[in-house]
Amino acid sequence: MSATADPSQAPATFDTxxxxxxxxxxxxxxxxxxxxxxxxxxxxxxxxxxxxxxAGAMNGCFGEVTPTLVRSEYGRLKLAMDVRATSLWxxxxxxxxxxxxxxxxxxxxxxxxxxxxxxxxxxxSAGYAAIRQAxxxxxxxxxxxxxxDIEWLxxxxxxxxxxxxxxxxxxAVDTPALLRAxxxxxxxxxxxxxxxxxxxxxxxxxxxxxxxxxGDGKVLxxxxxxxxxxxxxxxxxSAVDPEIxxxxxxxxxxxxxxLLVRTENGLIPDSVIRTPNRAFACGLHVVxxxxxxxxxxxxxxxxxxxxxxxxxxxxxxxxxxxxQMRADLVNGHIxxxxxxxxxxxxxxxxxxxxxxxxxxxxxxxxxxDGLHQSPMLAEEIAARVLGEPHDTDLxxxxxxxxxxxxMTREEALETAVTHTMAVGxxxxxxxxxDFPPLIEEQFRRSFRxxxxxxxxxxxPPPELLFFVEDEIHDALxxxxxxxx
Length: 484
Known about the structure:
By secondary structure, the protein is of the alpha+beta class. 33% of the residues lie in helices and 23% in strands.
């Protein structure tokens, strides 16, 4: 079986159809094709609205740790998943090189985490300490660095690092190379790429039988359909009985903006350089891409619908961040503004497994972890589709579920307040000394009111308190009502 870009020329029958051609969908398609399955991966070639195209693609595991992550059992499971994924990436990257025309998949050697003077203690300092503790718990090697000895780093004096450490086992992926290698390897393994948008899933006799393509209405048939379409995946459940569908957390978009920058002097770091996660986002990070180009990222704004363009404020936030890394980046040139949408379920945890109908599966909702976890999740979902043994610990993330709770109401409230105030610090606000406490209290009252209006049996993630959108709050209420 060979590749095709024309839906009208695609075969009509497969063993499995994967909806979504980002990092997760293509990885699953490749694993299944290697196993001899007749597989179609369906998605528009331009990948509109996808998270993968805008990803910095850090193989971040310990660098992503936060205090709130490791305080909950679900967060610790996500960390364990990240650790397992890290162990697969060397072989995964090498196999992609061998099965495609790429000569390099990785773009960085190791990760440097800096603790600088921009963040707030309750987030940055606590995050830095949590990263170290997690590495000690897993016996992951790391090395303390003197910030002034980091060669590429040259921030403005007011943004200089206080501490730094090097994680030799955390690298980064060249996203364009990965998104070229995956479809090449997939088609060479016998898979079929279908350049089309899926309009809906077909259900007959209580099970999934295929998908309908938008435009010509062509039907592709399969015994199994896996929805790996990121933030759009839940919309494809329209044919599922509402009593089942409403018990699956729908998703909001973590709209993100990043920049590709050519440095003035052509100098780029060898390693990823990043801060701890901060202010509802993944922290400031620089990822080398080669040939004098760096990736500078990334913002995160939780919205009810995906974004396709970058707001000026988001770009300005990134540009203000250059002072934390290298002051002369102001003389660099922006080659591209990347825009993507991270898929965030309403309870904050991934949707992995059966979607309540025979033959229908979800593989999405991974927020910031999808690309890093893609080799591991591809193996896990493939095993489930094929009826093989799999890691039952991941069954907690089965899509049809009550909300997974990781915080008390007070913890969610205070986390939302702390991160909200940190946004102001990141934007370098200048206020009279007595204003920040007044603003903080106003946010606390506002967030508490939102919580009081919600179902008292469930607690939404802090991000969904800060990004106040009626559409998001209405979706939360519907999801909570379905589990009363």
